[in-house]
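Our consortium's second objective concerns turning raw sequence data into structural hypotheses that experimental partners can test. To show how far this objective has progressed, the report includes one record in full. It was chosen at random from the queue rather than selected for favorable results. The single chain below, 323 residues long, was entered without modification.
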Amino acid sequence: MDKRLFLQSLGAAVALVAGGDVLAQTAARPIRVVVPLAVGTSNDFVARTIAQYMSVGLAQTMVIDNKAGANGIIGTMDVVKSAPDGHNLLVASVSPLAINMALYSNVPYVPARDLTPIAGVSLTNNVLLVNAAHPAKTFAEFLDHAKKNPRSVNIGSSTAATELQIQTMNRMAGTDMQVVAYKGAPAAINDVIGGSLTAVLADPGLSLTQTKGGRLRALAVSSLKRNPITPDWPAMSETLPGFDFTFWNILVGPAGLSREAVNRLNGAANAALKQKDVVDKFAQSGTIPLMMSPEEVKGLLVSEAAKWAKLAKDANIKPELVQ
């Protein structure tokens, strides 16, 4: 063999081996999954659950990185600024990816522009809970009671989303129920049990626990349709047609993530969501798997941003500066 041809061939072989090593090292790197809320939240729970099973499918470690603060903006911006190499992802809820843009004027990102849609994760709703001794046995009776007792019915709210639900309820039902702010749903639940608060909007996991104990009664769920995990609990839309406050979590990455990486991650996510263990764990918190294509996730980001902007406008909520 000609010496120059031999050296060229040797160089190409070395480059190929080196390239393979780089690819292997890249694949071996852990995937960091940012959760923009605190440990123990429902967002954190579904992220940890799906990451455990995706790790198996990808043969790659996934590490949860909780970066709470500023209504999810801190964690979201961490991923927005990350390299689009498939090793920095975000599992986030409707709050930082849709509601924030409706309520705050200085959000530094546009989800549909600054993030790459990958996969759905979970879908759930809120539940309206009252004390078991409350005279209303149905959501319709609860609204009727509120109309007959203006400004005397108060509902605990621990997020901007639940406050917007109450305001929308008032607008659609012609009631004047009062919002009482809490730092978390558990404190509001305790006050409903104690009798100093009329009702609370809580997540299905807490609601299932409290209703089984017999101290609280579930009147309705906030989603457009009944939650299959709690089919006996009516949807508020059955009394207020069109009422729909559904809550979701999705998997996204920074803008510019390759289609190859998106497809690989989407496949792993959807495979994880089909696992019985995942379905069962989600069900314990009143949550169902949300299997979506990247295109469906993109459509969700666009439609939900428009939906929440309209809800805020209809409720006369003016965007404020996020703290």
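The partners drew two points from this record. Residues 1-25 have pLDDT under 50 and may be disordered. Residues 3-28 form the longest helix (26 residues). Both points have been shared with the crystallography group to help prioritize constructs.
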